[in-house]
Design goal:
Blueprint: H1 2-15, E1 23-29, H2 31-48, E2 52-58, E3 72-76, E4 86-98, H3 100-106, E5 120-123, H4 131-140, E6 144-148, H5 151-159, E7 164-168, E8 177-181, E9 187-193
Parallel strand pairs: 1-2, 1-3, 5-6, 5-7
Antiparallel strand pairs: 3-9, 4-7, 4-8, 4-9
Helix pairs in contact: 1-2
Amino acid sequence: GRVGDEINALQLRLSGADFKPGGTIRLTAPDNIAYTYLPDYLAPFCRRYPDIRIELVVGGTSLDLTRREADLAVRATKKPPGHLVGRKICSLAWAFYASPDYVDAHAGPRKLENLKSHNLIGGDGEIAPLPAMRWLEKRHAPLIIARCNTLNAMSALAVAGLGVALLPDDQQKPELVRLFPLVPAVQSDLWILT
């Protein structure tokens, strides 16, 4: 993926240098990126550069890169702060997800119009301001039977069969069925920032 490409690019820059890189890199990333994607890239990175130590701060949306609370941040944002340097890694679409058991027991839903007869799982706390969560709250608040403050928790409730969750596609996993995308499209851009 693009996160791996960025780490590989960093490896190439470091390998072309005449010094042996060392020190600590404090990296912050959202839960799912930190748990699902980063370990596969950080393990070989650390083997190649044994004098570099990684401090991985999961979540950490309040960390201030300008005050060196973190050196690198992977963030989902449409517009990163102008004082940070970075690069867009990819865009993530949002879709409705449910467990296979929920889909079998409740016949769908397979389109937006069918949501009115389903239990929904929504966002709360720090994820409530996300455009997709605001969209869900504005249009379907009475159907929301559970709210979570992390996307991983929303995903876990959907896997357990509680209802249908609106999630970014990085939450896709074998235990969930991608029912249909959110249209009009709401995307989250992933950036790596320093």
